[in-house]
Amino acid sequence: MSDLKKMYKTIMDDNFPDQMTIKFGDQTLVYRKRAWKIPDEKSGELIEKGLRYGENPDQQAALFELVNGNLVLGDCSYISPGNGLVSSITEEDMIQAGKHPGKTNLTDLDNALNILKFLSAGPAATIMKHNNPCGVAYGKNVSEAYDKANMADRIAAFGGCLVVNRAMDKTCAEMVSGNYLEVVGAPDFEDGVVEILAKRKNLRIVRIKKIDNLEKHRTLRFVDFKSLIDGGIIVQQSPINRIRTKEDFLSAKAVYKGKEYAIERQPTEGDYADMLFGWNVEQGVTSNSVLFVKDGVTVGIGTGEQDRVGVAEIAVFKAYTKYADGLCFRKHGVPYKTFELEASQGMRDAKALKEIDEKTRDDRGGLIGSTMVSDAFFPFRDGVDVGIKEGISAIVHPGGSDRDFESIEACNQADPKVTMVFTGQRAFKH
């Protein structure tokens, strides 16, 4: 039998040109292929390589950085040279290449920055997996933010990509080194941090200096390309998140058959804080999506589903699963599934497992008092009811459904009442 592990050790040469030029009418954009001089995994000698491979080990891939040209279409000026983040990473920034990065490592870094550009208010951490967040959190410092983000979904965080928006300190590094991650990104690393992280030799350690100026990217558009199987290309503007402060939310009101419906419980400051946090995180989640957040931490994230009720139910299921795992790991130092298996074999106290299950059920997976966020409106109240059943306190969604009145009624009929705001903007991401 062949060694299947060998395919993941593949380093693909690429046949893409060193330079790429794109013309939009009479405007020209020039891109340069990015490559790095990194130690060869076998000999240790420096070799120049671009991306390791694409989404899979048998796909060639290349990274291009915009180096010349400033695209202006209509009244919109797009990102110009000098604003590079992931595409401008140099050998100096790639502090430890580990297995030098492939496409998914860089797209995870990129989407982490897409979320963090909205979270500049304080130390924050996001852990990405397959271009979706599995845990995002604010903290008093980056170590607390990382711990909260990690415990929000320890299971999915395995092999993920962590990015923090402040310099990483030793406390955070020690916590990170105890887990398995593929990539760690930060604006800088305090003295002694790299030595701690480097204990995991295959970890990619990347400095992204411009995280300090990341907030300005909130209002900078880029051109988004989608290639079709027939060789065609769909081109679109990147989105702009219109929600900056609580004043940007719209009061949840609707008119149906001449009757006006309005939300009865107005948001508290705490509600607004989580509404802002949750809607900002939503910008980096693959649609169809619903997520729950509480006290500046993600609780359950449902992604990429075809129906809104189904994705809400998945987010609830994930919240319960991750909550039980977190309880188990905090108290017993092992994952819930390991404890459950060992309990079935008589190696662990079955009573302790029952206690975890009961607390998870009583706390409803940490969803009580959380905020429910949806990237598009709820076409019927059934999706809203999924969250209300779990004891949520607030809902954020774009609004605009013909049946918004049903969702408003559901919130007003809840005990205790649930508050709701509209964003007036959809946040689909495919």
Automatic annotation (TrEMBL):
This is AICARFT/IMPCHase bienzyme. It comes from the Bacteria. GO terms for molecular function: IMP cyclohydrolase activity; phosphoribosylaminoimidazolecarboxamide formyltransferase activity. PANTHER family: BIFUNCTIONAL PURINE BIOSYNTHESIS PROTEIN ATIC, BIFUNCTIONAL PURINE BIOSYNTHESIS PROTEIN PURH. Pfam families: AICARFT_IMPCHas. GO terms for cellular component: cytosol. One of its GO terms (biological process) is 'de novo' IMP biosynthetic process.
